[in-house]
Amino acid sequence: MYQLLLSKIRHLYRKYDWFTLIVVLLSLHILSAVLLLYFDYETFAQETLARTLWKGTWWFFVTATTVGYGDIVPTTVPGQVVAIFDMIFGIGLMATIIGAGTDRFLERRKLRVRGLKQLQLSNHIVVLGGGAKKKVDKLIGEIRNDHLYCKTDIVICSDAYEENPFSDDIEFVRGPIGSDDVLERACVKDAGFVIIYGYTDDETILTTLTVDEMNRPAFTSVYIRDRSNIRHIDRINKARVAHRFIDGRHYPRIRVITRLNDLMLAREIANPDLSAALLLLMDTTSGSTFYSIQAWPGLDKQIPIPRVRQMLRVNDAHALLVGLKRDEDGSIIMNPEEALNVYPNDLLFVIAQHRPDVDWVSMIQDVQ
Question: Is the whole model's pTM more than 0.70, yes or no?
Fold first, then answer.
């Protein structure tokens, strides 16, 4: 009978998971508590009903876990008979719960390490691909060095590793980056940011199409090796513009990242060490680096370039304005002329010691 009961409990556990175990444990506890209070009330009776029930609960779990302090002992024969059943079935049930819990924990740990676990995340950063581990480590380091995203969950999706080669705070999903199963396990549909870095441009483009269908509002950037393939991403961006009129929503443009080295080969001849300087400005661990910040969102004010430069320089980051992107038409202007004005929501490209945290409201009030 004992083995039959344990077998039934295991079957219910596999079918209904922890809910069944909790119900069985509580049912056994309630049954034993009622019987003990009926047959051995003097042993468990306290000043209040709540304290009486707690004393019975304490005895049940001390007994079921084989701790056996002996501070409470049934004294009547019927109470001792009930206690015998609690010892037999309670210990068996508790052992089942502990064993099942340990197995489940180890199984989940194994799935997580092997990148097979279904994640439950939102507004996180998903990196699809990324190349060699050294490159991915550097990418993770750059994200962690930015105070805006240093605590954001990061998920790496790749079929290059059998197990998670990264630190415990990085989630790993194993498989081809364009697979629907991989994208679903990585919760791409709920991600806030997606970085796509396929082995080939074809893989990158096809994955971008899938991500665009699953999560168009996400901030998406893709790495393209051959610049002639940028046109495919441009088509997706044009479709996003068209969807604005259909859905009534403003979808962000997919950003394209290309290799700097090819462009710099010729420039390096006439401009020695230019590529080294640019790479240094992209490295957040080397001091001043590039940042982009939005100009006074929501404030109806246009400010000339000289005043904007001054506002940025007095900030604790000592930011230097090097360019801007117009919010109205998306045009980018590098080294803008002094006669230009900056408008709300324009994107400012700056070089700074850290990401500038500008109090636009107070600064604009000073201008007025």
Answer: no
What is the side-by-side order of every strand in the sheet holding 125-129? 170-174, 154-158, 125-129, 193-197, 219-223, 255-257
Q: Contact, 313 vs 274, CB < 8 A?
A: no
Identify the bridge partners of residue 256 per DSSP, sorted by sequence position.
222
Interatomic CA distance for residues 348 and 345, integer angstroms: 9
Q: What is the CATH number of the domain that holds 103?
A: 1.10.287.70
State residue 227's pLDDT score.
85
Tokens at 338, concatenated: 């002094």
Query: Could you give the 3-state DSSP secondary structure of residue 176?
Result: coil
Instruction: Give residue 327's identity as a one-letter amino acid code.
Output: D
**DSSP-derived 3-state class of residue 366:** helix
Considering its fold, how many domains does the chain have in total? 3
Q: Dump pLDDT digits (tens) for 127-173.
A: 999 878 888 888 888 888 877 888 899 999 999 888 899 988 899 99
**What's the rounded Cα separation, in Å, for the pair 293 and 214?**
27
pLDDT per residue as tens digits for the range 293-328 = 999 988 888 999 999 999 998 888 889 999 999 988
DSSP 253: P
Average pLDDT taken over every residue of the chain: 83
Closest CA to 154 of 165, 164, 141, 169: 169
Domain residues for the domain of 16 are 2-113
Residue positions counted in the chain: 368
Query: Is 254 found in the same domain as 131?
Result: yes
Task: Tell me the three-class secondary structure of 114-168, residue by residue.
Answer: CCCCCCCCCCCEEEEECCCHHHHHHHHHHHHHCCCCCCCCEEEEECCCCCCCCCC
